[in-house]
Amino acid sequence: MLLLTRSGWASAKTAHRSLRQSRWRLPFMVAGAAATCYVSVDYVTASSLTRSVRALATAARVIYMYKSVTPTSIEEQKNLHQAAAEMVLNLCLRNEGLYIKLGQGLTALNHVLPREYMNVLRVLLDNAPTVPMEEVQRIILSETGKTVDELFLHFDPMPVASASIAQVHRALLRPSNSQETPVEVAVKVQKPNIRRQVFWDLETYRLVSWMIGSLFNLPVAWARQTVIDGIRCEVDFSIEARNASRVREDFAGQSNIYVPRIYESLATPRLLVMEWIEATKIIEVETVRQQFDETAVLRILFDCFGDMIFKNGFVHCDPHGANVLVRPSPCKGTSRQRDGKPVGKCRDPQIVLLDFGLCCPESLRFRMEYALLVKSLVVHDITTAAKVTEAWGIADTETFATVQLQKPYRSFLRGNYSEATRDEISEMQSQAHARARTILAHQEQVPKELSLVGRSIDILRSINRLYGVPLNQVGMFVRRAVASLGSLNSFEDVQLYLKRVEELSTMGMEPNTESCSSCAAVPSHSLPPLPMRETLSPFNPVATIRKKAEEITELNLDAMCNTSSYERVRRSFFSLVRRVQFELALFILDAYYMLVRIQRNYLNALLHTVMLKNHIVGLRFRRFSGELSEARSGMT
């Protein structure tokens, strides 16, 4: 009996132990399987899961800081922004790749983000880490099927530049036959892990932006998909090759704008070979000033982008200082020569544009409405500007105008056209933060091109500031905007024209004379605005097809209108009258701006002279005091 009892007790104890072990076995197995899966996926995706977890953890910490801390002073608020910006910087530097590119994008939002973010994240604009030559050789072989020695006579193993997703080497392209001369080229090679990381990085960005928008009730969804689509285009160098060829064709007739030749046989998703250009980066301010007239250089640059935005409808969206070069125009020669060497500044500078990975194709609707908006803001036509912003789903026209002009719009209406002061910048930022929740009342109606085109304009303004703002930033694109509108003067005129183009392109019909004359026959005040619809990303295939159809219809419609002598004379007359009126207003604005600059420079020079005189007087007084003390000591 005792043995049975002991035996039963042992069996029960064993069964209990087995039950307890089996209870913990399943969680351990699940945890082990999850860890194995995590490590495997992380290895296959080049540490993308670890990078995503790190990004989500950083986002959670930053969100918690802003939610839990309530600054009681300006100093505490600055410290809060500084700490958050340093967290973002550390994340970008540790994750590298697309995170550096996204961090660089934040530096262009100087009108929205606090100054602490700009100061901290500026580090990301420097050269990114490089990859070894062995990786470069492997990528070139996998993309072309040929080795570096088979393609190039010489290949510099040290990159001349390194960006977030690629690095550039200087090389000598091997000619196809013995009669040809070797050509010096720039070889852009994508970094090895970008393709495996891009999906996870962009999905993490999508999740983080959704978290920020939801928790802080901020309108960030309207531009999210456009940013994602744009970055996907950037990591495909074959798209960049097509973009460069398109811009090269757009400016083929202008000698002061140049796009390097692309070698299409060596353009693949991860490799791009282009013509090497010897020139000066526009951010090398002192060198540019010594060789060129800085005002002429900046005017060529701004006119070039004005044509992109308002005429060509295809915009380079990353014109930072390293992507814009300046050189003497080969067509017109250099400046005066003495003993075979150039003397003085070059009279005919040429702008060279690089890096077309991120280009924005604009819809006809956005291009014309944006031109009308820019014109209306400059001539103080707030009524027309309000109609455009209302059509875009923007409820607060004044705040939007402030962001567009980079200057408080009320100050601009009072006739203050000069560069924004530090106090005005602080006012702009606080106004944008306070009204960010209400400015975009209907996000689905906001043109998706606005974020990318606005980025280009902000970068160009920062280049203008590097040179001390020699050009008036308020009106730097307005001439191109007015020229693109032609005889269309009001919001109703533009809507009527867009309606005719849309109807004809939708029906696939050729425009006739009646279609042309109807633009003038219908009273503009009787035309209702076009029905609002959700705007598409400019990279959406549907938007691309629609844009091509509208371009063809627009060309046919304009050609048909120009066949009528009466219509041609009428349009030319009204365009000329409005252009003269506008040029007069713009001349007054530019004259006022130049007077303010001259006055400011005079006051600065006067202040410097006074300070220098005070310094000299102080030195003489100290010398006299020293001599007097020595004399007294000698008498003693």
TrEMBL record:
InterPro entries: ABC1_dom, ADCK1_dom, Kinase-like_dom_sf, Mito_struct-func_regulator
ABC1 atypical kinase-like domain mapped to chain residues: 124-387
Organism domain of life: Eukaryota
Alphabetical list of CDD domains matching this protein: ADCK1-like
SUPFAM superfamilies from the UniProt entry: Protein kinase-like (PK-like)
Family recorded in the similarity comment: Belongs to the protein kinase superfamily. ADCK protein kinase family.
UniProt-recorded name of the protein: Putative ABC transporter
